[in-house]
Amino acid sequence: TDSLGRFTFATAPTGTGLVLDVSGAGIARSAMPYDPMRFARLPAPTEAHWDDVQAAGGLFIPDGRGTLAARIQRDGEPVEMAVVETEPDPASAPIYDGATAIAWSFTDTGEFGLAIAAGIVEGPTALQILDGATSSVAAPIPVREATITFVTVALNPAS
Predict the structure, then answer these.
(1) Which long-range contacts (CB under 8 A, 24 or more apart) does 92-99 make?
(2) Residue 64 — very low, low, confident or very high, per pLDDT cuts 50/70/90?
(3) Rounded to the nearest 5 degrees, what angle is found at the Cα of 94, between the Cα atoms of 91 and 100?
(4) Which has the closest alpha carbon to 9: 40, 32, 43?
């Protein structure tokens, strides 16, 4: 890892269900399922920023639970006006990107296509995305205790 936190794999990891994790002093513990076909840039918000997000969004995360942060895209572009549901259910209603980094919408995704579901029981989580008249389900996503799991979900191209 270099001074900016960047690293590369000398050889690509193999196996299934692999997850990249990041943690450290002042960093909110974060994870991302590993996809060998995609360049990975794992977000690592500071604990202070994550605390601000939780407060501004009214998020409640009981002990033993984690968070799912999904960037929703179609044709490489963020999807606006999408809503999400998870199974298991989160402890807090999902929040969606708003006008600023900590001004959240409680209705649907904004210009960045970001949805956060907090307080999910640790384990595989199904993510359903409702986008107007269409509905998509992402493969089970591994949510971990006290961790923000980041995913990018690519919806089918518009017809």
Answers:
(1) 92/57, 92/58, 92/59, 92/60, 92/61, 92/117, 92/118, 92/119, 95/57, 95/58, 95/59
(2) very high
(3) 130
(4) 40
Look-up: residue for tokens 């690509």? 12
Which ranges constitute the DSSP H helices of 8-100?
Answer: 47-57
Contact assessment for residue 30 and residue 24, using Cβ atoms and an 8 Å cutoff: no
pTM of the model: 0.89
Residue 76 clears pLDDT 80, i.e. is over it: yes
**What pLDDT is stored for residue 137 in this prediction?**
83
Give the residue-averaged pLDDT of 93-111: 91
Radius of gyration of the chain (CA): 15
Mean of pLDDT over the chain? 88
Q: How high is the pLDDT of residue 6?
A: 65
Instruction: Specify whether the CB–CB gap between 104 and 57 falls below 8 A.
Output: yes
| Pick from 21, 43, 44: nearest CA to 33 | 21
Contact 149, 111 (CB under 8 A): no
The C-alpha torsion from 106 through 96 and 49 to 25, rounded to 10°, is 120
> Residue 152 in contact with residue 43, Cβ under 8 Å?
no
